[in-house]
Specification:
A five-stranded antiparallel beta sheet has the order 2-1-5-4-3, with helices on both faces. The protein starts with a strand and ends with a strand. The relative contact order is 0.25. It has one domain: YfbM-like super family (Hypothetical protein yfbM fold). By secondary structure, it is of the alpha+beta class. Helix 4 packs across helix 7. This is DUF1877 domain-containing protein. It holds the Pfam family DUF1877.
Amino acid sequence: MGMCGAYFRVTSGELRELIEDPDRYWEYAEKTRDTERSVDVDKAWHAMWFLTGRAGIEVDFVLGGTLLGEEGGDGPARYFTADEVGKVSAALSRTGFDQLARGVELSDLEAGGIYPSIWDEPDALDYVRSYYDVLVTFFADAAKAEEPVVTIIT
């Protein structure tokens, strides 16, 4: 299975409930799964983190955000407020995947120890692109609705 990344949108009220009771994370995650309110980025999260950092995107939408609860166990889950979601969306919409991948060799990802170890496959960046493009749309929709986003890597 491996370590996979996931994001889901919540209302401001739901975020307050999650902050008060972080153990309800899985309840909310399950409620949004397979809806337009959630997105799974599979194992592409680490490559997106690497590529966006390399491209100078200052908003860390992969490993950033505010901790939801305590570290330990799965995750930990983190969240972005509606204002932060707007900043993430703006940064992502300004940066297409071609810009992220410009000048990147698959060997760069391999040398950086970027998960998963698929960087010997010629279409590996297409795998990352497919998830990045979906995430750009996801954050744009969340920003338009002025909704917070919760994320986890498990």
